[in-house]
Design a protein that fits this description.
The protein is an alpha/beta fold. 36% of the residues lie in helices and 13% in strands. The chain has a 10-stranded mixed β-sheet with strand order 7-6-5-4-3-2-1-8-9-10. It has a two-stranded antiparallel ribbon with strand order 11-12. β3, α3 and β4 form a beta-alpha-beta unit. α7 runs parallel beside α13. The longest helix is centred in the C-terminal third of the chain and has 23 residues.
């Protein structure tokens, strides 16, 4: 499993769409629990987490009941609001078997009581889903994130099993079971060298063929070795990343606003609106999204599961205390404080914030370390969407909704002008 963001997706809308949660919702920490640690039945070429098995030599990588209960109890104790999210990922969490999750949900319901609402999420590759699994997920109203990298040829380039065989057919079969059972689901798509030049093919496949209504695009930035900045050939090219987002954004703003929710675009809209960052990667600081290993070890972030960023074990110290610790506070503020001067002077800093620290492997034009590998792509994307984002924000502020931009585009298309106010449409127009 790779690059699971803070939230798997909305239940009923995006931060800027009807039936959404308030824009001013207070920030809360989020725990991604890994009941099987890095263990997975697949062997995706770009998966950064498989190698974490070396942290626990000889371990069986199965979360004990006591750790599961402690995790759930501490999350429930820690949340001040009426809604609580219990999140599972991996590795491949379904390897624990459905009965483990039945016990987990039953314990969570007992702890939460009738006055609080539980949201259960799980990220899976989908290959092990059975009718029994899907009936359980539907009964307990799980939100299921399923990892798909596009149509078969693109998906199967890197998402293979232990024997190197393609996995698309098995993933699709799992998704079909989810759909048949009425389970709420969304797509997590990694963008890499194999699919970076096919943005519309990928997006339209999710929208038209799979019927996805919520999509997450996660860039693959993969080091050859953790201690060195060199990247693998599978990593997404920065310029291609920008072109990918721009192509999908232009399609989305013309046809799908309010119908398909693209997490990256919702997060950008929150930034233009002036709301708190909707994704940790775009926050000024970080540290509120931690990773819990199968044995109770809590790490600063899913991308920093290493001895240096081990905060402690929840069986010994409450996770709230670990999140409030000086090392975790320093980890969070380092994101802001380590930005190179080029980023501090960038016109899209308010939206990007240097993105994820794990991707800051390049040097600026002046030779300063800490530039994000994806900088050029984000700069192109955020510059491109500025005019349309302003229109969407204006619509929201006057009581409408962001989807009104589609009507503006339709009208603009009839007179060959651009709704963003830049005059006649050109290849450089933000619209």
């Amino acid at each position: 499993m790779v690059d699971v963001p803070i939230e798997l997706g909305p239940r009923g809308g995006s931060p800027m769409m009807p039936d959404s949660r308030p824009l001013t919702a207070p920030p809360q920490f989020h725990v991604l629990a890994k009941p099987t640690g890095p263990i997975c039945n697949l062997d995706c070429s770009y998966c950064f987490f498989l190698e974490k098995e070396a942290l626990y030599p000889g371990d069986r990588f199965r979360m004990a009941e006591s750790v599961m209960e402690t995790y759930i109890r501490q999350v429930i104790e820690s949340q001040v609001g009426p809604e609580i999210t219990i999140a599972w990922q991996g590795g491949e969490p379904t390897l624990m078997g459905v009965d483990f999750f039945r016990r987990a949900v039953a314990y969570a319901e007992e702890c939460a009581g009738p006055q609080r609402t539980l949201h259960h999420t799980i990220q899976t590759n989908g290959t092990l889903l059975t009718d029994e699994w899907c009936a359980f997920l539907r009964e307990k109203q799980f939100l299921v994130g399923i990892s798909i990298d596009g149509p078969p040829a693109l998906h199967d380039t890197y998402r293979v099993d232990k024997q190197g065989r393609p996995t698309f057919a098995r993933v699709h079969a799992g998704l079909d079971r989810l759909k048949a059972a009425g389970v709420e689901w969304n797509v997590l798509c990694t963008v890499h060298a194999a699919n970076q030049d096919s943005p519309l093919e990928v997006y339209k496949y999710f929208r038209d063929d799979l019927g996805a209504s919520f999509v997450q695009f996660i860039p693959i930035v993969e080091r050859i070795h953790e201690a060195r900045p060199e990247l693998t050939e599978r990593s997404v090219d920065p310029d291609a990343w920008g072109r990918f987002l721009i192509a999908v954004f232009d399609e989305w703003t013309r046809h799908d606003v309010g119908e398909v929710f693209v997490q990256m675009f919702d997060a950008a809209l929150a930034s233009w609106y002036g709301a708190p960052a909707a994704l940790c990667i775009f926050g000024e600081t970080c540290g509120n999204a931690v990773a819990l290993e199968h044995n109770g070890d809590l790490y600063s972030c899913d991308h920093f599961v290493d001895p240096e960023h081990l905060l402690g074990n929840i069986m010994e110290t409450h996770m709230v205390e670990l999140l409030a610790s000086a090392p975790q506070r320093d980890f969070g503020t380092a994101k802001r404080d380590s930005l190179p001067q080029q980023c501090r002077e960038c016109p899209v800093l308010f939206a990007c914030r240097g993105e994820c620290p794990k991707n800051r492997v390049r040097r600026t034009s002046s030779g300063e370390a800490g530039l994000n590998h994806l900088c050029a792509g984000y700069l192109a994307f955020f510059t491109h969407i500025d005019g349309v984002m302003r229109l969407m924000v204006d619509a929201v502020r006057r009581g409408g909704h962001a989807g009104e931009v589609m009507t503006m585009f339709a009208a603009a298309g009839r007179n060959d002008s651009c709704p963003c106010g830049s005059g006649r449409k050109t290849k450089h127009c933000h619209g």
